[in-house]
């Protein structure tokens, strides 16, 4: 089996300017093929001593996972070991941490060889990770760990959804939603049947449903409106306003919960010119952009 290495940065396997690359034409004889292979090997940046090498990536430091004598480690662009080959498997890596398996268990190792997370996980955490700090799954539960090994979100959640990159986390557990900040503190307590950000209508405004009623909260958990509405249809963002339902009827509210159009209608629609059509008892009427009756 051929070993793997890496060509120089020109992508021409070390050929000199004006000289034909050995890969550009077919060899005319086995001797010529052997001669060309030798030329390529002599000019490689990383000699082909590895069993396997993953692609170098753009994680901020040029590095790649490499397998040597059946074990995996991490090498730099010159083939120097950043992490010695001592692991059964490796997963995704960031600028200073990598997922590794040893003894059949997964953990997180920094580039100084220190454990950020001891190898206690049955699954490869990087399969659930988009970036660092990583999302970690233990069994059927999810958590979030930072670079120091501190749990920002304990691995007890049924589901975690990141917001704003990875600075806030919507967390769902036992049918209840809450919002944790980048320090792992509850910004919005985990006590809501529904917690949905009004994006892109308002990036720091959340629809919160509790005990069958809903209202609006900001990203720090402060109440923007009283939870007096039967429903708020966040799919209908009408020029900065929201359709809200009260006592079984629809109206239109602003972002502070004030009624622009009172809840007297079976349906509401926004028109291209910014006006609103409203239906009651099977009949349609027309409101201006500020809620004034036109028809």
Structure explained in plain terms:
The protein has 295 residues and is mainly beta. 4% of the residues lie in helices and 50% in strands. The protein is built from one helix and 27 strands. The protein has one helix spanning 30-42; strands at 4-6, 46-50, 52-53, 63-68, 71-76, 81-87, 89-93, 97-102, 105-110, 115-121, 135-138, 141-145, 151-157, 159-163, 168-173, 176-180, 186-192, 194-197, 205-210, 213-218, 231-238, 241-246, 249-253, 259-265, 267-270, 276-280, 283-287. The strands form eight sheets. It has a four-stranded antiparallel sheet, with no helix packed on it. A four-stranded antiparallel sheet has the order 7-8-9-10, with no helix packed on it. The chain has a four-stranded antiparallel sheet with strand order 14-15-16-17, with no helix packed on it. A hairpin with a 2-residue loop joins strand 15 and strand 16 (176-180). The chain is elongated, with a radius of gyration of 29 Å. It starts with a strand and ends in an 8-residue tail after the last strand. Residues 7-25 have low confidence and may be disordered.
């Amino acid at each position: 089996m051929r070993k793997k290495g890496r060509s120089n940065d020109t992508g021409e396997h070390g050929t000199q300017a004006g000289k034909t690359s050995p890969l550009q034409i077919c060899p005319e004889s086995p001797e010529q093929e052997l001669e060309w292979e030798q030329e390529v090997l002599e000019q490689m940046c990383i000699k082909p001593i590895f069993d396997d090498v993953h692609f170098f990536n753009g994680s901020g430091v040029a590095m790649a996972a490499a397998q040597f004598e059946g074990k995996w480690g991490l090498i730099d662009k010159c083939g120097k070991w950043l992490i010695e080959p001592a692991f059964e498997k490796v997963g995704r890596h960031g600028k200073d941490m990598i997922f590794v398996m040893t003894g059949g268990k997964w953990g997180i190792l920094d580039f100084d060889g220190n454990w950020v997370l001891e190898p206690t996980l049955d699954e490869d955490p990087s399969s659930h990770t988009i970036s660092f700090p990583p999302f970690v799954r233990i069994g059927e539960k999810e958590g979030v760990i930072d670079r120091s090994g501190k749990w920002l979100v304990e691995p007890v959640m049924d589901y975690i959804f990141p917001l704003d990159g990875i600075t806030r986390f919507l967390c769902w557990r036992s049918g209840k939603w809450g919002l944790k900040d980048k320090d792992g503190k509850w910004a919005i307590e985990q006590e809501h049947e529904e917690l949905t950000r009004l994006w892109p209508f308002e990036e720091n405004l959340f629809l919160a449903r509790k005990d069958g009623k809903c209202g609006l909260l900001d990203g720090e958990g402060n109440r923007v409106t009283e939870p007096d509405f039967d429903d708020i249809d966040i799919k209908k963002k009408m020029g900065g306003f929201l359709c809200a339902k009260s006592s079984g009827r629809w109206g239109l509210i602003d972002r502070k919960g004030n009624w622009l159009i009172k809840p007297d209608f079976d349906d509401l629609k926004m028109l291209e010119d910014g006006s609103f059509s409203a239906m009651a008892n099977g009949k349609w009427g027309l409101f201006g952009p500020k809620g004034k009756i036109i028809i």
